[in-house]
Write a structure and sequence with these properties.
The chain has six helices and six strands, in the order αββαββαββααα. The radius of gyration is 15 Å and the shape is globular. The protein is α+β, with helices and mostly antiparallel strands and 144 residues long. Strands 1, 2, 3, 4, 5 and 6 form a six-stranded mixed beta sheet that branches. β3 and β4 form a beta hairpin. The structure holds tetrahydrodeoxyuridine (THU). Tetrahydrodeoxyuridine binds next to α2.
Length: 144
């Protein structure tokens, strides 16, 4: 398995955590990921006075991935304000799964794991493909 520069990804995640907008929770989060073309994409949480409208750091990261030309996520880490590695919330595991799949390498507080280990039996595009009516709507070109 190729080497992942986790220190560089951690540094990127810590850096972007410093730009989070988290006035309501006081819990800034920074996320960084390596893309299969060598890019590093990042995101921070952006809270809102309507608390439920909050965007997790991973939402920004995925937006940046897609807006920057797409690609597959290879390795991912997120950190809190103190720079410690945290686990992505359940919803964000699903977001990451879509763009990294089962083999996405995740740095966790317990060490490196794969996405398959932290979101077992994930629901994904393949499940849609199994149902003809749903598959008819599946596009492989990202909707372009
Ligand atoms: N948060 C993230 O940005 N990502 C996660 O995976 C966990 C939670 C944010 C959302 C909210 O702004 C703050 O952390 C506290 O829940």
């Amino acid at each position: 398995m190729a080497n992942v520069d986790w220190d560089a990804l951690m540094a990127a995640a810590r850096d972007v955590a410093g730009r989070a907008y988290a006035p309501y929770s006081g819990y800034p989060v920074g996320a960084a990921a390596l893309v299969d073309d060598g890019r590093v994409v990042e995101g921070c949480n952006v809270e809102n006075a309507g608390y439920g409208v909050t965007l997790c750091a991973e939402c920004g990261l995925i937006s940046s991935l897609v807006a920057g030309g797409g690609g597959r996520l290879v390795a991912f880490v997120c950190v809190n304000k103190t720079g410690d590695v945290i686990m992505p919330c359940g919803r964000c595991r699903q977001l990451l799964f879509e763009h990294g799949g089962r083999g996405l390498r995740m740095l966790t507080p317990l060490g490196e794991r794969t996405m398959d280990e932290i979101l077992p039996q994930a629901f994904g595009p393949e499940d849609l493909a199994e149902v003809p009516e749903a598959a008819a709507h599946l596009r492989t070109d990202g909707g372009h």
